[in-house]
Amino acid sequence: MKINLRVWLKIPDAEAATVKNTLRRRMGYEGVLTDLRRERLWSIEVDDGVDDPMDLARRLARDLVNENKESYRASVGAVTFEGGYVPVRVGLHIEDGEAVSALKRLRDRLGFEMVRGVERSVVWKLALSSPNPRRTAEEIAEGLLINPHKDFYEIMT
Q1: Which neighbouring-strand residues pair with 152?
Q2: Which Gene3D superfamilies match (predicted)?
């Protein structure tokens, strides 16, 4: 079973603002990109025998989310996003040290033995005014959001 934690900043996101301005001012998406937001996505594989996965998600969030400056939404199974955005998930082809560290911390130090795997990625939510939003999101991902030597991307539907 997979528990997903979508995490975003409560405070202004300087990285998202920089990416948004770069796309609009320097890359020609001024009339196309109406909004851009960034989230972290933690996908946590746990044993199927967990009694209350949403309670477990809340307990895992205590370690993975800084509630002073971040908000989160938990889900079990599929990840869903609000309408109006094209979500582009960016992850690593190579081993993600932060995900490996989180897995070890959750299992070894905090006693969450039911956790089997942890993946971390970034989701860029693009609000696009385009005849083909999916293709525009692919162009943006390949042009700015990923480093093809270490990253992959996926348009989430």
Answers
A1: 91
A2: Phosphoribosylformylglycinamidine synthase subunit PurS
Q: How far apart are CA 109 and CA 71, in angstroms?
A: 24
**So where are the chain's domains?**
2-155
- Model pTM score: 0.94
Q: How many residues does the chain have?
A: 157
Cα–chain-centroid distance for residue 50?
A: 24
3-state helix, strand, coil in the chain (%, to 5): 30, 35, 30
What distance lies between CA 20 and its chain's CA centroid? 17
Contact 85, 126 (CB under 8 A): yes
User: Which stretches of 11-130 are DSSP H helices?
Assistant: 14-21, 53-64, 97-104
pLDDT tens digits along 101-143: 999 999 999 999 999 999 999 999 999 999 999 999 999 999 9
Beta bridge partners of 72: 7
DSSP 143: I
CATH class of 2-155: alpha beta
Supply 146's token pair.
């990923």
The structure tokens listed for 124 are 């860029």
